Amino acid sequence: MTLRRICVFCGSSPGNRPEHREAALSLADTLVERKLGLVYGGASVGLMGQIADRVLERGGEVIGVIPNTLIEMEVAHGGLADLHRVGSMQERKAVMAELSDAFISLPGGFGTLDEMTEMVTWSILNLHNKPSGLLNIGGYYDPLLRFLDHAVTEGFIKPKHRALVIVATTPAELLDQFVADI
Fold it and tell me: Which of 53, 93, 98, 123 has the fewest Cβ atoms within 10 Å of its own Cβ atom?
């Protein structure tokens, strides 16, 4: 499998730390440098808006996918040539997965966590064979990683399934791991 487009899950909020924004911009730059398209949640706000704006500024491909109910709430990005409007969050995830070759999660909240865990679950269920990774900026995902390791110890997650969550601290490192795992 060749990587052509990367789906990025991230917050519709910018977060409280400048390194979250810096990570979104760095990921955008890396995607454009590697000629990889961005598939994301279609919003113009928060980290979602920042990564999309940067990829667009650099001349890269951006595909947004947003449910009708979130068009006003998340302020759908008006600068996208390719914005898919869908009927539900479930349809959003399905379309994003269909359009992407891999998944990266930047810092975010419940929506990001939902999207990331669903893609890993789909991989476990053999619904796709695409890598999923966390861009662990400033230790943001450390508590989640400890939980996943705890769930392995407690017998609720198999070690081979825990290994499906690839972790890196830089976009280049994460994308290199994706390519090595394909």
Answer: 98
